[in-house]
Write a structure and sequence with these properties.
The chain is α/β, with parallel strands linked by helices and 375 residues long. It contains 11 helices and 19 strands. It has helices spanning 14-27, 39-43, 47-56, 67-75, 93-98, 108-116, 143-150, 172-194, 207-212, 347-353, 358-363, and strands at 8-13, 33-37, 61-64, 81-84, 102-105, 123-130, 138-139, 155-161, 201-203, 220-223, 248-260, 265-266, 272-273, 278-283, 301-304, 307-312, 320-323, 335-339, 371-374. The structure holds pyridoxal-5'-phosphate.
Amino acid sequence: MQLETSRAWIEIHLKNMEHNLREIEKIIPQKTKIMAVLKADAYGLGAGKIAQYLNKIGIFDFAVATLEEGILLRKEKVEGNILLFSYTPLDFLPLVLEYDLIQTITDFSYAEEIAKQNLPKKLKCHIKIDTGMNRSGEKYNAFSTLTKMYRNEKLEVLGTYSHLCTADSKKKKDKEFTELQISRFHHCIKTLKEEGINIGKTHLQSSYGTLNYQELDYDYVRIGVLLFGLHSAPNFYKRTNLDLKPMCFLKARITSIKIVKKEETVGYGRMFKAKRESKIASISIGYADGYPRNLSGKDALVLVHGKFAKVIGKICMDQMMIDITDIAHVKVGDIVTLIGEEQPIKAEKLAELSQTITPELLSRLGKRLPRIYKE
Ligand SMILES: *Cc1c(COP(=O)(O)O)cnc(C)c1O
């Protein structure tokens, strides 16, 4: 008996991640390496365990969003490069050094402020170029400031990168914008190199940039969602179809079963009304576990004994109800799969039904859910 499986949990199949990694490697240029993006605790799946496994299968390049996420990986004995995407306040830069992390330099003024700090050694960094997303980065054509950034004595520049903002769209004007970003990045690094500047490793694409612009041959692709065997949304544009295996399975138990008569209602607000005599099960998971409450009344499905059952009524904080009228031999204690590999319960499908994208759905899966790793 495992306490972790007493109520609701997430099963994480690490072997599937290795499969996904090998699939991605097949479509990228030989010289390009995968940088695994494990921000937000590896999209909720547990950054420490996932990075340790990636180390075992030969991945030594990582990115996270925050300083704390980077420190956590080091405390978990993760080896290799760890890039921080976000700004780290100046007072905390000594920790970036202490834990051997790589800071993103988000713009010129940040570089100037860093230069004024009394740091014991050079700060390892990648310089971020803004090619049109207007989120972070120094402007792609601000060559005089860019040059000063690379020549900043306090920085050890190991890389240069930018980020695409419409790589997941098939619309003509979005593709044109991506092409524009690509050409700006290309021109920027070419000009810097011609100045004799060492720009370090280069990278531009995340998952969709990799799927849709796979011929680009920078040093890295930064991969998040694809590594976990998922797409961000079922309808996002993908030129390349990979054979991905979802690695995350959300499960809960049946805690009670009852018969409700025709016309009776179930749950808060009496949202569900039985059209026939129905067999209804409560299951031990709710919106506090990250199953979105806005899936109430949307005919979301779960898997019980290999058959699909509808989620009915309002999703509660710790429980929800499903209609198992047509499924035989279900008993209290049985396991229900809410997110899995079958099309109707794929994370991207549920995310879409909940009007969001897969990374939001995954990263909001609750702290209360134990993560169980299978190799
Ligand atoms: C989140 C993020 C990624 C990874 O995105 P996916 O779409 O999950 O692959 C890559 N680069 C940056 C800068 C990011 O913020």
